[in-house]
Amino acid sequence: MGGTLPGKTKTVPAYSSLPYSNKYVSGRVYALLKQQQCIIDVLEQMEDNGVCPDAETDAMVLNIFGRHGFPTKKLRRMTYWMPKFKNLSPWALPEKIPTSNLEVAKLAVQRMEMEIFQTSELRDAIDDTWIVSVQSATQRKLLAKLQEKKTVFVEGAFTIWLRRTSINYFILRSDPEPLSEEDQKQRTQFDYDEEKVL
Fold first, then answer.
1. Is residue 187 within 8 Å of 196, Cβ to Cβ?
2. Three-state secondary-structure class, residue 157
């Protein structure tokens, strides 16, 4: 096509200014496969950067490649699905993710009640850092039932992604509690493995 893909631009006009031309208009679906692939690459980059095509881009692609062209199909899928996925989460992230790791951690766990601990407040602290801690109501109940001096393991680091920013998190885990006699009886009463059925 003669143009270069705009880097990480997140605006539609940057993509619309690429050198499109009506000279590629063709009535055949499989004609101009190289040009179709070039436009599909541009649409892919728009999708990766979260840029939804506008009506002008739609009209250009439709005019150049026709209703049944691969770029038109790709563009129609993008205009259908991108707005749906963009507004799907009830905990929407801001367009620009903060650069502070503490703020990123707060965004990652915003749907649960959180506590922030500063390690500088601890007597034996080696680093001056922070810990963002979250627990659901069920997790609090399980921790309250945990026996004193029971071993709790820290597992991780696991990664969570917020747009193009990642942060690590850790989980606490302990060995499961043995079942009470009543729970054990109930479990064996309804436990049908193959040997018992035969």
1. no
2. strand
Do residues 117 and 130 lie in contact, with contact meaning Cβ atoms separated by under 8 Å? Answer: yes
What range does the domain containing 67 cover? 12-86
- For residues 82-96, b (16+ Cβ closer than 10 Å) or e, as one string? beeeeeeeeeeeeee
Structure tokens given for 2: 């003669």
Q: Provide the 10 A C-beta neighbour count for residue 31.
A: 14
- Maximum C-alpha span of the chain: 80
Residue 32's region, left for phi above 0, alpha for psi from -120 to 50, else beta, is left
Same domain, 42 and 97: no
CA distance 138 to 110: 17
Are the beta carbons of 120 and 142 closer than 8 angstroms? no
* Least-confidence region, from 89-93, 102-106, 156-160: 89-93
Q: Answer yes or no: do 69 and 106 share one domain.
A: no
Both 79 and 101 in one domain: the answer is no
Residue in the structure block whose two tokens are 């407040």: 121
Look up the pTM and report it. Answer: 0.53
